[in-house]
Amino acid sequence: MTSSKVYFSDLSSGSKENNLINRIGRLFKKACEGIEYDKDDLVALKLHFGEKGIDTFLRPVQVEPIIKAVRDAGGKPFLADSNTLYTGSRSNAVDHQKTAQENGWVRPVVSAPVIIADGLHGNEFYAVEIDGEHFDEVKIGAAFFQADGIIGVSHFKGHGMTGFGGTLKNLGMGCASRAGKLMMHYNVEPEVDIEECIGCGKCAIWCPAEAIEVEQYAEIDLEKCIGCGECRIVCPEGAIEVKDSSSNQEIQEKIAEFAHGSLIDKYERSIFFNFVVDVTPECDCPPWRKYPMVPDIGIVASKDPIAVDQAAYDLVKDEKGREYGAGIDKFGKEHDVDPTAQLKHGEKLGMGYRKYELIDIS
Ligand code: SF4
Ligand code: SF4
User: Fold this and answer.
1) Which residues line the pocket of ligand 1, CB cutoff 6 A?
2) How far apart are CA 298 and CA 32, in angstroms?
3) Distance from residue 40's CA to the centre of ligand 2 (Å)
């Protein structure tokens, strides 16, 4: 079986020359070997600018070396994400831009513009043909489709439906337009535990389908529910569970197919970073955070989107965590899913390899 190279840097340094900012630039150069951008190639750095109120999204100052490195390699970088399905602070391009600015994604901290890839209301996309098991066509935000290359810059952390969210999740869900996101969420069914529900109403505020009514406790109308799972993420009491773990596998596979669609003509000009820091159990979408599951580990980078996620997953698994020991699949334990389903499916689609060689450049 073939394997891929994954470059790693830890976070600790004792000199200016070898500080993390310089190492991030070196990680890019290592992972970028063999990639050349033509003059004026437009290169999208796929980011999550952070929901308003959370602080675990990536730091702009750590992304700037990647922006510079893309420019040095001949490309024209821009920072991009698509609008969310749920009604938070990033569900249209105006709110999304404003939230990005408030979270620090502005000049002079970052020297590239922010572009919301799927337009004002999330309906600017291209239909991309793929040979998937779930889809033969995926809907990718226009700016991602039109970009000449994609640099996935991902915060690696937990996720309620997929176990962990890394490169595949960042690209698959994050490059999809609103219609594309709906295609992936179609089969998920949430269920409220009325013993745990305190009737706070947060789930109803965030539900994009107006499927939740709250009196004493939340009630979900499954006829209206589009299965996005956001109610589970935002519930502060953990009172909402997503039924049927096989649908977790299915959504992971669908995410992998969308990630494949976002890269289909760009594999030769794309690189992927996972920042394995602030590894919280949940993603960066709710406007709060919980304690990280493990101490900060470092950054991995590769041309292979499967290998880079597998490496990050293994690093977290090997670490002794707050609740789970070394060698334990912490994301699987936390969310009762097999988080490697996305990787297995991505490998089947030909996106890359789960086997990798980890090269430490620290
Ligand atoms: S009730 Fe359904 S549509 Fe509404 S947030 Fe929950 S999963 Fe999404
Ligand atoms: S967010 Fe959770 S606790 Fe609040 S109403 Fe919804 S289910 Fe109940």
Assistant:
1) 190, 207-209, 211-212, 220, 225-231
2) 19
3) 49
